[in-house]
Amino acid sequence: MSDENTVWRSQTYALLARLLSSPPDQNLLDNIAALEITEAESPMGKLWLLLKNSVKQADVVVIDEEYQRVFIGVTHGEIIPYSSYYQTGFLMEEPLAELRTSLAKLGLVRQKETTEPEDHVAAECDVMRLILDAEGTPVISDKEFFIQHLKPWFAKFFQDLSQIDKTSFYSIVGQFGAGFINLEMSVYR
Fold first, then answer.
1. Neighbour count for residue 138 (Cβ, 10 Å)
2. Kind and range of the H or E element at 10?
3. 3-state secondary structure at position 116
4. Is residue 184 a contact partner of residue 146, using CB atoms and an 8 Å limit?
5. 5-28 CB burial, b ≥16 within 10 A, e <16
6. CA 132 vs CA 19, 54, 119, 185: distances in Å
7. Which of 1.10.8.60, 2.40.10.220, 1.10.3480.10, 1.10.8.1000 is the CATH number of 3-187?
8. pLDDT-based confidence at 2, cuts 50/70/90?
9. pLDDT tens-digit readout, 68-85
10. Ranges of each domain in the chain
């Protein structure tokens, strides 16, 4: 993989982490809207255009409400964005323990102010970004981390997100994420 490709992948993971950890602010939406899409006819280029066009019409308040409904809810959101839940049907299960072991090997520790478990979709995207951005060879390669921790559930998560009823922005984020993860699957065969 070229350095340019690695940078692009890292930035895409960073964007997904940001969009899935909390509702975007107007500054982030403006930055996405200002992106230049150079390969607009490629499958991923079409998804970038879809995301870009969705933020041009987006309202921060509406997106915030959508985020609350999809991910938070009264007791829980329409989607429960944790690997343990997606893989076992329960929270705080073996996938989280395995992830914590990998994070310890990478020297990553949970921040005290963090309220979410480490197996939140946004956190796992951020770890992939960190591995891709790492100088030298990390203890756990991006391929190993992806296969062990993302491959078992990311495609299903983004597919589910793309099909959430009554959403506009997060449905598009789901389509974007699904397309990106499908590309990643082909990288790590």
1. 17
2. helix 3-21
3. coil
4. yes
5. eeeebbebbbbbbbbbbebbeeee
6. 19, 28, 18, 16
7. 1.10.3480.10
8. low
9. 999 999 999 999 999 999
10. 3-187
